[in-house]
Design brief:
Elements (H helix, E strand, L loop, with lengths): L3 E2 L6 E2 L3 E3 L9 H13 L4 E3 L15 H13 L6 E6 L12 H15 L4 E6 L8 H14 L2 E7 L3 H14 L4 E5 L8 H14 L2 E2 L26 H8 L2 H17 L3 H10 L8 E2 L4 H8 L8 H11 L1
Parallel strand pairs: 3-4, 3-10, 4-5, 5-6, 6-7, 7-8, 8-9
Antiparallel strand pairs: 1-2
Helix pairs in contact: 1-10, 2-3, 3-4, 5-6, 8-9, 8-11
């Protein structure tokens, strides 16, 4: 599988990143292990998680996903084979959130312990913290990189103004810069990234690993009517946002391209992201090894110019 460099980081990843948000939520530990085995066995090498996964589940405190990944890494002995990306800054609880230096330095120790590793390949600001100067956040990361606890840093859910401010501060102060951006981006959610962020990441050669590449499962085609929304824990949110005229138009285009390519709508939706200029690798999660195998086939799809035009027009 052809690997792509993430920004200017030197990290090389397969064109699909496995999302760890479901580990310990809709995938128990045993299932999560099988998913991870299938992903790495199929040629994938980058796994994305966060210390906040999965605080939204009743009874969870955050760190559940990291804990499962750490157990898998230790049992399988795969640490050197994979790129581990995690995040800091989401509100885990009222006392643990944000991007202040002292909190980052404290939070990283918890992530390292749960992941059962002494370094994180890609440590990301989960979302912007407008109460903290970007310089303070970057100073914390500079310390962690210097200590060898973090190799590369990235940003998630930043707007263009704050990302530019951060990149400029890194250059001015000699701090590590954000080598990747993790935005919301898929065939349905295009406008904000393409208009505001894409020119910036291309200007600075910042890698892009978008989340919700399948629009919370909508672009797999499994939600086509209101009745379909009962199929999963995510159905309610999917229906409110995506089950509308635009969403159904995109599904129609995915069906047409999938038929031409002898592929599934999910594979086509991910292949479309992989074909976009400036995009490194979409993140997608799976709840079974079979889903992983299906998603990995997206890396083999070669969409034609006509295919891309069909999808672009339906999703414009």
């Amino acid at each position: 599988m052809q690997h792509r460099e993430l920004g200017r980081s030197g990290l090389r990843i397969a064109p699909l990143v496995l999302g760890g948000n479901v580990f310990g939520w809709t995938a128990d530990e045993a299932t999560s292990f099988r998913i991870l085995d299938a992903f790495v066995g199929g040629g994938g090498n980058a796994i994305d998680t966060a210390d906040g996964y999965s605080v939204w589940v009743p009874g969870h405190v955050g760190g559940e996903s990291e804990t499962i990944i750490g157990k898998w890494l230790r049992q399988r002995g795969r640490r050197d084979d994979v790129v581990i990306a995690t995040k800091v800054g989401w509100e885990v609880n009222p006392e643990n959130k944000g991007l202040k230096k002292d909190y980052i330095l404290r939070a990283v120790e918890g992530s390292l312990q749960r992941l059962q590793t002494d370094y994180i390949d890609l440590y990301q600001s989960h979302k912007d913290d407008p109460t903290t100067p970007v310089e303070e956040t970057l100073e914390a990361y500079a310390q962690l990189v210097q200590q060898g606890k973090v190799r590369v840093i990235g940003a998630s859910n930043f707007d263009a103004a704050r990302l530019r401010e951060s990149v400029e501060a890194s250059a001015r102060l000699g701090f590590p810069r954000y080598e990747s951006l993790q935005p919301l981006y898929n065939l349905y959610d295009r406008a904000e990234f393409e208009q505001e962020l894409l020119p910036l990441v291309q200007e600075h050669h910042i890698g892009v690993i978008p989340y919700y590449g399948l629009a919370a499962g909508f672009l797999t085609g499994k939600y086509r009517t209101a009745a379909d929304l009962q199929k999963s824990a995510r159905g309610g949110g999917v229906g409110q946002k995506y089950l509308n005229e635009k969403g159904l138009r995109i599904l129609g285009a995915l069906d047409a391209v999938a038929a031409r390519q002898q592929a599934t709508p999910a594979q086509v939706a991910l292949a479309w992201i992989m074909a976009q200029p400036g995009l490194t690798a979409p993140i997608a999660s799976a709840t079974s090894p079979e889903q992983v195998t299906e998603l990995l086939h997206a890396t083999e799809l070669q969409l034609s110019p006509d295919d891309i035009q069909t999808l672009n027009e339906a999703s414009a």
